[in-house]
Amino acid sequence: MSEVDVAIVGGGAAGMVAALRAARNPNLTVVVFEKSTAE
């Protein structure tokens, strides 16, 4: 597994804004986790 600098839990409006702001830094690796509705 790769190292991640920033992990955002939740892909709602606030999570996406946080991820976008973090992703502007080219030195950071950002991942967004969203719950799945699949069973």
How would you describe what is shown here?
This protein has 39 residues and is α+β, with helices and mostly antiparallel strands. It has one domain. It is 28% helix and 21% strand. Strand 1 (6-9), helix 1 (13-23) and strand 2 form a beta-alpha-beta unit. The model has no long low-confidence stretch (mean pLDDT 93).
Structure at a glance:
The chain is of the alpha+beta class and 39 residues long.
Q: How many angstroms does the end-to-end distance come to?
A: 24 Å
Major sheet details: 2 strands, parallel
Mean pLDDT: 93
Instruction: Report the helical percentage.
Output: 25-40%
Characteristics:
single chain; 39 residues; alpha+beta; two-stranded parallel ribbon; 21% strand
Describe the secondary-structure layout.
Layout (H helix, E strand, L loop, with lengths): L5 E4 L3 H11 L6 E4 L6
Parallel strand pairs: 1-2
